[in-house]
């Protein structure tokens, strides 16, 4: 028979104001298994915990029930207390009298009645608790970073700085991501390339970091500390080892009319190309769809001019398998497609462009060498209209419900830079709200309005159309309470951002949860913002939610510090509340393995010999290191063979009985 | 190809041409339109109030008549089409409205949105086919620059009307090509003419109608076609700054087919 102690917490007035805590303690004393019961103002305080420890010794308790707040809050605290008192930490049960009782009820009498039932339920469960011992697993001291934008770069550099090996897997031919495409960065207006490309070089020269560019993660197996990833290295048809990056091939390539992705399709590139001058690795890639050699078999000019014989037309995709202790998701974002926004004329009116295209137009290395020239006729516009919140903060299915967060600041930046280069140009900005919190951010926006005379119009744009060679922008001016039609030469749409299209499949591969917008979910919105709820998976950058560069870099560093904390450990203590199958009851039907989200269940066959019995039996076996204790298998098992330690079927039934008594 | 046909009140009074040429053309194209017996007004305006069913009942009666005959329902007036299609959608998707309408009507069999509501233009595109129409044209409108005016009722809300891309519709342009004309694409083809506001604020309706006509004229249109009697009224009576002729699309169809 167990000797159980029940400790009822007041939580100041949080519980005590609605629940008669003394009555709960008195009721506990009537339970047969309860040897001691008391109430106290703050159980989690130092003195509360001492009280528990003393009572365990004095009354020779075998387990304790804490009737307090949610187990999410203090279960770990009280397990440690139990351990300090010489008990097994899993001989602790929490009755949630706060979130599930006092906070949701008003009537003290009823709340007390419910609190007593909750206490009894915990006692009933604890009566059947068994001491559990957590297993240990090793940690592979190597991290995988998926995505090589500024988020991935910063995370990798910080992890490498602590002395651990890091691999970056980037699907594009070069690392650098979206930041490499930006012109200047707010609010200080330093050039993006000047602050990013040195970091890219640091990554390339760091002997702890391996870059797998033009590569994608195909498969991930394992669990925290022990992941295995299969990486597909897509054929770039150029040998990375032999290539010197001289660029002779790109100069001679006769297929020159292919839209240049790096410049947002505003100019063309050759079929063999290096995305931009500071690309890392500086190794070209052949775009086989547009390469004459691949299309017709004739050409091969690049191979002829290559001084180091690096062109390999017969290259095929290869695979790398590597073990990792931690995985960081840094998959970033893309501007949304504007196909559903027909009223704004993007794609039909050449002089309606997106903000990222405008970045390239302003960039000295861009298609116009940094001169703002409109795409239709290459002329300098006299009037530019910026439209904010295109696809952000909307309620219809084509729009995103969230604020893309970066657009107010980059639009202010575009406006300032435009007026700085061309003071004679007229600049209007349509906005819903200007949201510029952040260090030196609002000051920056005010400079646009006050010093640069940018005309901010509060209102949304309903239609953009062409008339007499002008781009007409029809919108509302809510402060002036009127409809406006503005004649512009160039219109720039601040397009909403969304997670990269690969995020969903990567999330599935990693069993990392995502929200309805495909942003990765953090383990705790406030207190664990860079960790996924799946152990060993960390989040860096916009894959978790919209962010600007400074915020991304901070978060990337935070993710790195969490990874370093994990890799610094030699052993990981597992969760002992895992599933286990009883081979005598299991009939090997296979249903549990089907529902297991972690792939923790396999089957073995064993010959059974007994009096008059000789047969081969198939039954389920759980890999305890992989099992996360979700319990899906236990409720699926038709023969009751599967059980979850700490939450056994008998314990759950005992709880139900206690509630129904 | 036999369909239930719902003309609507305006087509029996002010917009007789829309109705007349729709029937003549259909006949020429081998489509039989059977006018629903004892039809009532569609309601005129789609009622937005969620708790009001009385104004939807007449539409449900029409929809049910088509169902009883086992036929798809063809409409031609934009406003009637808008109301019938949306009420039908309510009967299909809104359990509360469906239940209350049926409770009131006490039909032999409950009506749950079974009827397929098709606009005449959709029939031309999907049933007859623009290619077939091209073959049957005897008086092609060659060289005629025609501006399609969609207005709002045919297109919006696009999730319910599912007529065409509400921002860049093409169906009437395709129709114009089929009868040999040259479609003029202009930015205001899917903007409101002013609608019923003409009763309250003639100036506003006039502003809107003139904007539409100016936009079409600016792109070189010689004629504007529409499917909506209310648009026709506004463009003709309130769009006074422009002399662009406005006709029903059925009229030029009949002309092209040689049945006018």
Outline the structure in words.
- The complex is a heterodimer of chains A (661) and B (260).
- Chain A is of the alpha/beta class.
- Among the domains of chain A are: 4-127, Rossmann fold (3-Layer(aba) Sandwich), CATH 3.40.50; 333-498, FAD/NAD(P)-binding domain; 579-645, Alpha-Beta Plaits.
- Chain A has 18 helices and 34 strands.
- Chain A has a five-stranded parallel β-sheet. In chain A, strands 20-27-21-22-23 form a five-stranded parallel β-sheet. In chain A, strands 2-1-3-4 form a four-stranded parallel β-sheet, sandwiched between helices.
- The longest helix of chain A is centred in the N-terminal third of the chain and has 20 residues, at 108-127.
- By secondary structure, chain B is α/β, with parallel strands linked by helices.
- Chain B has two domains: 2-120, Glutathione S-transferase Yfyf (Class Pi), Chain A, domain 2; 137-257, Rossmann fold (3-Layer(aba) Sandwich).
- Chain B contains eleven helices and eight strands.
- Chain B has helices at residues 16-28, 57-69, 78-93, 95-105, 120-128, 130-136, 158-161, 171-178, 202-218, 229-237, 249-257, and strands spanning 2-6, 32-35, 73-75, 117-119, 145-148, 182-184, 223-226, 246-248.
- Chain B has a four-stranded parallel β-sheet with strand order 2-1-3-4, sandwiched between helices.
- Chain B is globular, with a radius of gyration of 18 Å.
- The mean pLDDT of chain B is 95.
Q: How is the topology of this model organized?
A:
The complex is a heterodimer of chains A (661) and B (260).
Chain A: E1 4-9, H1 21-29, E2 34-40, H2 46-58, E3 63-68, H3 71-84, E4 92-96, H4 98-102, H5 108-127, E5 136-138, E6 142-146, H6 150-161, E7 165-169, E8 184-185, E9 190-191, H7 192-205, E10 209-212, E11 215-223, E12 226-233, H8 248-252, E13 258-259, E14 268-269, E15 272-273, E16 285-286, H9 292-296, H10 301-305, E17 318-324, E18 326-329, E19 333-335, E20 352-354, H11 355-362, E21 383-390, H12 407-421, E22 426-431, H13 441-450, E23 455-458, E24 461-467, E25 470-477, E26 482-488, E27 490-495, E28 497-499, H14 503-510, E29 537-539, H15 549-567, E30 571-573, E31 579-581, H16 591-595, E32 601-610, E33 613-622, H17 632-636, E34 642-644, H18 649-660
Parallel strand pairs in A: 1-2, 1-3, 3-4, 6-7, 6-18, 7-10, 18-29, 20-27, 21-22, 21-27, 22-23
Antiparallel strand pairs in A: 5-30, 8-9, 11-12, 12-17, 13-14, 15-16, 19-28, 24-25, 25-26, 31-34, 32-33
Helix pairs in contact in A: 1-5, 2-3, 5-18, 6-7, 6-15, 11-12, 12-13
Chain B: E1 2-6, H1 16-28, E2 32-35, H2 57-69, E3 73-75, H3 78-93, H4 95-105, E4 117-119, H5 120-128, H6 130-136, E5 145-148, H7 158-161, H8 171-178, E6 182-184, H9 202-218, E7 223-226, H10 229-237, E8 246-248, H11 249-257
Parallel strand pairs in B: 1-2, 1-3, 3-4, 5-6, 5-7, 7-8
Helix pairs in contact in B: 1-11, 2-3, 3-4, 5-6, 6-8, 9-10
């Amino acid at each position: 028979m167990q000797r159980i102690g029940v400790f009822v917490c007041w939580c100041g007035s949080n519980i005590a104001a609605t629940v008669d805590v003394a009555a709960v303690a008195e009721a506990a004393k009537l339970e047969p298994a309860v040897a001691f019961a008391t109430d106290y103002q703050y159980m989690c305080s130092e003195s509360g915990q001492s009280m528990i420890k003393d009572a365990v010794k004095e009354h020779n308790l075998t387990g304790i029930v804490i009737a307090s707040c949610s187990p999410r809050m203090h279960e770990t605290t009280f397990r440690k207390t139990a351990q300090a008192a010489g008990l097994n930490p899993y001989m602790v049960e929490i009755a949630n009298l706060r979130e599930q009782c006092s906070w949701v009820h008003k009537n003290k009498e009823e709340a007390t009645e419910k609190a007593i039932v909750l206490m009894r339920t915990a006692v009933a469960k604890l009566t059947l608790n068994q001491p559990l011992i957590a297993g240990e697993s090793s940690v592979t001291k190597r991290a995988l970073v998926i995505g090589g934008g500024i988020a991935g770069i910063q995370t990798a550099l910080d992890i490498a700085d602590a002395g651990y090996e890091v691999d970056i897997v980037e699907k594009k031919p070069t690392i650098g991501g979206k930041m490499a495409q930006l012109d200047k960065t707010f609010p200080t207006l330093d050039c993006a390339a000047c602050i990013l490309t040195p970091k890219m070089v640091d990554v390339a020269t760091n002997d702890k970091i391996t870059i797998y560019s033009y590569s994608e993660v195909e498969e991930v197996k394992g669990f925290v500390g022990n992941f295995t990833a299969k990486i597909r290295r897509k054929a770039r048809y150029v040998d990375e080892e032999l290539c010197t990056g001289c660029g002779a091939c790109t100069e001679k390539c006769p297929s020159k009319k292919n839209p240049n992705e790096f410049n947002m399709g505003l100019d063309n590139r050759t079929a063999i190309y290096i995305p931009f001058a500071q690309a890392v690795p500086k190794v070209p890639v052949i775009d086989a769809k547009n390469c004459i050699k691949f299309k017709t078999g004739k050409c091969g000019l690049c191979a002829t001019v290559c001084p180091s014989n690096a062109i390999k037309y017969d290259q095929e995709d290869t695979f790398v398998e590597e073990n990792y202790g931690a995985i960081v998701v840094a998959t970033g974002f893309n501007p949304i497609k504007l196909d559903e926004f027909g009223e704004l004329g993007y794609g039909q009116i050449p002089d309606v462009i997106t903000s990222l295209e405008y970045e390239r137009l302003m960039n000295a290395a861009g298609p116009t060498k940094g001169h703002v020239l409109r795409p239709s006729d290459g002329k300098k516009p006299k009037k530019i209209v910026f439209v904010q919140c295109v696809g952000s903060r909307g309620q219809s299915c084509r729009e995103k419900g969230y604020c893309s967060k970066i657009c107010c600041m980059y639009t202010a930046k575009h406006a300032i830079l435009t007026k700085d280069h061309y003071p004679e140009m007229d600049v209007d900005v349509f906005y819903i709200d200007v949201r510029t919190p952040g260090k030196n951010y609002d000051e920056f926006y005010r400079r646009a309005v006050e010093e640069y005379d940018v005309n901010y119009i509060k209102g949304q744009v309903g239609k953009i159309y062409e008339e007499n060679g002008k781009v007409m922008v029809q919108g509302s001016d809510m402060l002036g309470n009127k409809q406006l039609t503005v004649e512009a030469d160039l219109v720039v749409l601040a397009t909403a951002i969304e997670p990269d299209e690969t995020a969903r499949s990567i999330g599935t591969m990693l069993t990392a949860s995502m929200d309805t917008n495909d942003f990765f979910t953090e383990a705790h919105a406030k207190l664990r913002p860079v960790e996924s709820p799946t152990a060993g998976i960390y989040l860096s950058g916009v894959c978790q939610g919209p962010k600007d560069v400074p915020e991304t870099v901070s978060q990337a560093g935070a993710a790195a510090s969490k990874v370093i904390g994990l890799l610094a450990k030699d052993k990981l203590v597992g969760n002992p509340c895992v599933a286990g199958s009883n081979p005598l009851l299991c009939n090997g039907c296979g249903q549990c393995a089907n529902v297991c989200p972690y792939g923790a269940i396999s089957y073995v066959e064993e010959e059974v010999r007994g009096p008059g019995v000789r047969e081969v039996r198939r039954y389920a076996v759980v890999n305890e290191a992989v099992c996360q204790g979700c319990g899906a298998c236990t409720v699926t098992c038709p023969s009751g063979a599967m059980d979850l330690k700490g939450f056994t079927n008998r314990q759950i039934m005992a709880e139900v009985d206690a509630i129904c008594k | 190809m036999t369909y239930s046909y719902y003309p609507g009140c305006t087509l029996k009074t002010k917009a007789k041409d829309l109705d007349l040429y729709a029937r003549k053309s259909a006949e020429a194209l081998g489509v039989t339109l059977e006018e629903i017996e004892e039809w009532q007004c569609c309601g005129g305006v789609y009622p937005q109030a969620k708790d009001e069913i009385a104004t939807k009942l007449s539409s449900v009666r029409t929809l049910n008549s088509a169902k009883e005959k086992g036929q798809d329902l063809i409409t031609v007036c934009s406003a009637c089409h808008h109301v019938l299609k949306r009420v039908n959608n309510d009967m299909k998707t809104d359990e509360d409205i469906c239940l209350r309408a049926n409770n009131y009507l006490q039909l032999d069999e409950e009506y749950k949105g079974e009827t397929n509501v098709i606009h005449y233009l959709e029939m031309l595109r999907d049933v007859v086919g623009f290619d077939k129409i091209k073959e049957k044209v005897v008086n092609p409108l060659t060289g005629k620059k025609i501006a399609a005016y969609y207005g709002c009722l045919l297109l919006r809300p696009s999730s319910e009307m599912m007529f065409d891309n509400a921002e860049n519709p093409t169906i009437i342009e395709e129709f114009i090509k089929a009868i040999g004309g040259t479609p003029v694409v202009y930015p205001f083809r899917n903007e409101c003419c002013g609608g019923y506001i003409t009763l309250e604020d003639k100036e506003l309706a006039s502003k809107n109608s003139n904007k539409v006509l100016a936009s079409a004229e600016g792109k070189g249109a010689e004629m504007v076609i529409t499917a909506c009697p209310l648009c026709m009224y506004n463009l003709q009576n309130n769009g006074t700054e422009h002399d662009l002729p406005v006709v029903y699309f059925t009229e030029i169809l009949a002309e092209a087919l040689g049945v006018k």
